[in-house]
Write a structure and sequence with these properties.
Elements: H1 9-27, E1 30-33, H2 62-65, E2 68-69, E3 87-89, H3 92-114, H4 120-126, H5 128-139, H6 150-177, H7 181-187, H8 190-207, H9 209-212, H10 223-253, H11 270-286, E4 294-297, H12 302-312, H13 314-335, H14 341-349, H15 353-361, H16 370-375
Antiparallel strand pairs: 1-4, 2-3
Helix pairs in contact: 3-4, 3-5, 3-8, 4-6, 5-6, 6-10, 6-11, 10-11, 11-13
Protein name: Steroid 5-alpha reductase C-terminal domain-containing protein
InterPro entries: UstE-like
Organism: Cyclotella cryptica
């Protein structure tokens, strides 16, 4: 091969690496494996090599410039993000999303430290950070929203809709209520304020893993997952929004009484249940894209293959752990293990026999539709 005089050192290294890899591949053919439970998965081949001459930095294979490249002879569904249809996983959107999330929470912490008694910005920034991170992650990248796979578009829009909706409602409620008594003692000190915003970031990081991890993959996935996830998300959004609206209206019409109307008659915390459904829907949308196609040699041991399979599922496992975290967190709040909400409710309504019956008969999270039919 004749190299041009203008070829850079990095290009020489790329050529040498490619020739070495090709020579190694010719000595021992590799076997490729994708778990059979991956929907519409195909056998991936990376033996095609990179044959065209390298004349510019853009010609260097993507895996030498960052990210992971898998060339395929099959119809594995990918999308040409950054004009690289072979890019399957790229962690930069994940770090970009969470960096923005962290910066917004850091801004909120600064405002709280400067104005200790002000609470209007707590949920506006804490919950609105999800929307800002989703928007800015796409806006700050080298590709436009239209370049994203449909799965990423729907997932991003879903996060923005939920975040703007909830942040707007909580900001409206804060403007009406003025102060949240539950947070006064915590936010009255600098360590307490820092703790609040650190926990706010951790909450945002963990709960949005189904979306942020989905941003790392350009795999399209079967449309059935996108459809099913969208239905679950819409159900959760409707449940959470309806529950918040019903409780707010109840408090305006029946001050000093506990809410047991509408969704609150079949679940003690329907808003929590709706939130779990929201993130479950987003996880289902992105589920197929969270499983990484893998390859190993014929000589690989069973242990190596098992570890490789688990490693290929790491994103899906993290998304599942995120949903489990949400469930146990909300369940802990509903039981009074986390937070003081249950204790405060007992102080207010503990002497009310109707409230005691409500606590004994109505489930904590999952709505019991049989209660509606029993009332009829």
């Amino acid at each position: 091969m004749v190299l041009r005089p203008t070829m850079k050192v990095s290009q020489l290294i790329a050529v040498f690496t490619l020739k070495t890899a090709k020579a190694a591949a010719n000595k021992r053919p590799s076997a490729h494996f994708i778990p059979s439970f991956i929907p519409s998965s195909k056998i991936i081949s990376n033996n095609d090599g990179f044959t065209k001459s390298i004349t510019s930095a853009s010609d260097i294979p993507l895996f030498l410039r960052g990210g992971q490249q898998i060339q395929s002879r099959t119809n594995l569904r990918t999308h040409p993000i950054l004009n690289e249809s072979s890019l399957l996983f790229n962690v930069s959107p994940f770090f970009r999303y969470n960096s923005i999330l962290g910066l917004i929470n850091f801004l909120g912490m600064g405002i709280s430290l400067a104005f200790p008694r002000m609470q209007y910005h707590l949920d506006l920034l804490g919950t609105g950070a999800f929307a800002l991170a989703s928007i800015l992650t796409v806006w700050s990248a080298a590709y436009t929203f239209a370049d994203l796979p449909l799965r990423m578009q729907v997932s991003s829009v879903a996060v923005v809709i939920w975040s703007v909706k909830l942040a707007g409602f909580l900001f409206f409620r804060a403007c009406q209520v003025k102060d949240d008594k539950r947070l006064e003692s915590l936010l009255s000190t600098a360590p307490g304020t820092i703790t609040f915003w650190v926990l706010s970031f951790i909450w945002g990081f963990v709960s949005s893993l189904p979306h942020s991890l989905g941003l790392t993959s350009s795999l399209m996935g079967p449309n059935i997952y996108l459809l099913l996830g969208s239905i679950i998300f819409a159900t959760g959004l409707l449940t959470e929004s309806t529950a918040d609206f019903q409780k707010w209206m109840w408090k305006q019409r029946h001050p000093g009484k506990f809410c047991n109307a509408g969704l609150w008659s079949i679940s003690q915390h329907p808003n929590f249940f709706g939130n779990v459904l929201i993130w479950t829907g987003i996880a289902v949308m992105n589920a197929p894209a969270l499983i990484q196609p893998i390859a190993f040699d014929d000589s690989s041991s069973i242990v190596t293959k098992a570890v490789t399979v688990v490693w290929s599922l790491r994103r899906a496992i993290m998304a599942l752990l995120s949903l489990m975290f949400l469930w146990f967190f909300f369940n802990g709040q509903a039981q009074g293990v986390i937070g003081s909400g249950v204790q405060e409710s007992l102080k207010r309504y503990g002497d009310d026999s109707n409230y005691q019956d409500y606590v004994d008969t109505v489930p904590l999270l999952v709505p019991d539709l049989r209660i509606l039919f029993d009332k009829r």
